[in-house]
Amino acid sequence: METLRATTLNDKVKIQANIDDFKPSTVIDFFNETVENFPSHLALASRDANGKWNFLTYQEYKNRVEKIAKVFIKLGLSERGVVAILAWNCPEWVVAALGAIHAGGVVTAIYTTSSTPACQYIIDSSKTEILIIDNLEQLRKINEIKDDLPHLKHIILLSDININLMENAILNWNQLMKLDTDDTEIEYKRRLNQIVPNECCTIMYTSGTTGFPKGAMLSHDSLIWNIKKCFQAMKRIEVGKEVLISYLPLSHLTAFAADIFQVINMAGTVYFADIKSVLECLQEIQPTVFVAVPRIYEKIQEKVSEKINEFNLIIRKIFSWSQNVISEHYFTPNSSSLKCDFVNHFVIRRIKEALGFQNCKLFFTGSAPMSIETKKFFISLSMPIYEAYGMSESSTVHCLTSHETQIHSFESVGVCLDGTETKIINMDGNGNGEICMRGRHVFMGYLNDIQQTIQTIDDEGWLHTGDIGRIDENGLIFVNGRKKELIITSGGENIPKARIENLVKLECPAISNAFLIGDKRKFLSILLSLKTEIDENLKPKDDLAPEAQKWLTQNSLNFSTLSDILSPKDEKIFKAFQNVIDRVNAQALSNPQRIQKFAILPNDFTIATGELTPTLKVKRHFVLEKYRNIIDGFYL
Q1: Which of 76, 99, 460, 629 lies 20 to 30 angstroms, CA to CA, from 61?
Q2: Are the CB atoms for 484 and 494 separated by under 8 Å?
Q3: d(CA 425, CA 438)
């Protein structure tokens, strides 16, 4: 029976409107179409132990997917059974994901940075039958909890680590790929024929900024339809010629959709890189499409700015003039392009080559808002960044910005994809209310959570996002924050924290994170983390980042480390940051929206230290607990 919502893996949902737009498709049909049309095109690239790139063609890719699918069946994966992947990005990751789906199962993913309890929660709630891991660190986590995972049948290790596999009851990936699977051929074909577009193919767990994550179930149709709609909205893409880098965690839907399914859709080549070295890999790989979270673009901006500042005054003035020429032409396309062409050829081209972006045609970002300053900076380098807005529950993208939308407004997230709908409910006097979306990209529901599913998808198929925003007269959508993240002071004032936090960061480039406090409090206060260098383990160092040092120098403060700032009781330090707060308060929409107190934290927020999720979203509950003493001190 087909229903509007689903909460079990055996459920099938009614495909929503626009069925004639793109015919409902399974992941299998979608993959086969590319393999049939581009069998010898390069699909996957990864380095071996010696640093040499190894490639798989689309035909070789498919052969491996079919092989591991049969292996999963041989190992006892049941129909609709779950394969979970707890590993860093690599060809085996995507082969395993597609293999699970081809075997009639469902794939889910766990962030490699997840704690042992978080791993246990996902494996247990999804009833994972086969778990794939890539190193001893993950094995140690699982060994602590495997006796409490009754549904887990097998653990597969991707790497050839020298451990006693039999003693640990671990299977080796490379050995499994050599198994004779002829006896599973009939069952494999039977399962393939049973797979339909309106059943679940993947469970994507939200990153959990407020507690344990929810498992969003995506159907074959919702995922593939969204991929095709995004492709339709993108311009300048050439099928069979695009190159991408996979470095953001595949356990997040943005990377999962882009690095696996959008690459298949465009018959492109994806290179697997380590997030620690992605900026160094750019020159070698030379991507044609680049996807990054805002923080990555900010790091590139800092790198370019730092390099330009090393040159003499004449070179800096030429660079500044070039930026102005490019920006002017972007916002007034009908203006003469002669100066723009000259600047692109003699100035901007060299910067792109130095970064590794000389072949890059499209830049995208998502998962978190990007500052207007960063957007303008990249436009001035002829590298406009297009922003995607969506969520796991909308199969990633619902809105996309473009050149046209950015001319109208930098603050909008663009217009919704063709074939989707957007409405605002419970609007206030300024037209702001909860953003709701509808279309074939809407997810099936939350696994084993009927109540939350009904609250999120209403009886007319509208997905209630929990985001607050508005739609202007041009159809542009603006997101102002999360419904649940509105701060309600003890005086009853509703305050959108995102607006104030972004203003603070805009006023002071030395600030990495601004964390507003005031829920059920008499007044607003804020925690500030400064930009610092990151060590090889992705933990914050004491050394201030160049951008932070530059701002301090401009304010007559000569400090190079965070401890230097925190140790002395220097009135100049307090005054410099108080001036930032004063400038933000001058833009407050009401007196309750003025910040009364602030504190500089002893370290920046990172994934390794627990303040950020793997997609660089702030874990509010974690920060509130970690800095409880400082926060309580504000209100004594």
Answers
A1: 76
A2: no
A3: 13
Same domain, yes or no: 476 and 515? no
Say if residue 389 is in the same domain as residue 513.
no
**Tokens encoding 301:** 């901006």
What CATH number corresponds to the domain at position 50?
3.40.50.12780
Give a three-class secondary structure readout of 16-63. Answer: CCCCCCCCCCCHHHHHHHHHHHCCCCEEEEEECCCCCEEEEEHHHHHH
Q: Which residues pair with 265 in a beta bridge?
A: none
Single out the residue in 195, 219, 245 at which a domain terminates. Answer: 195
Is there a single domain that holds both residue 495 and residue 466? no
Domain with 557 in it: 489-634
In terms of domains, do 181 and 58 share one?
yes
Q: What is the pLDDT of residue 19?
A: 64
Residue 301 is assigned to a structural domain of this protein: yes
Q: Low-confidence residues of the chain, pLDDT below 70?
A: 1, 17-20, 162-169, 207-211, 336, 483-485, 490-492, 569
DSSP 8-state code for residue 259: I
Cα separation, 547 vs 529, in Å, equals 13
pTM of the model: 0.84
**Alpha helices (H) in 471-570, listed in sequence order:** 497-507, 546-554, 562-566
Same domain, 494 and 574: yes
**pLDDT of 170:** 85
- Nearest Cα neighbor of 361 from 371, 352, 350 is 352
Q: pLDDT tens digits, residue range 167-187?
A: 556 899 999 999 999 999 999
Q: Is 205 domain-assigned?
A: no
Main-chain dihedrals φ then ψ at residue 524, nearest 5 degrees = -90, 140
Whether the CB-CB separation of 498 and 480 falls below 8 Å is answered with yes
**Boundary of a domain, candidates 138, 170, 195:** 195
In b/e form, how buried is each residue of 162-183, taking b as 16+ CB within 10 angstroms?
eeeeeeeebbbbeebeeeebee
Rounded CA separation 191/209 (Å): 37
pLDDT mean across residues, the chain: 91
Q: Mark whether 324 and 182 lie in a shared domain.
A: no
Each residue's pLDDT tens digit, 603-619 = 999 888 889 887 777 88
Whole-angstrom CA distances from 411 to 41, 373, 616 are 39, 11, 20
Q: For 355-402, write each residue's pLDDT tens digit.
A: 999 999 999 998 777 888 899 999 999 999 999 999 999 999 999 999
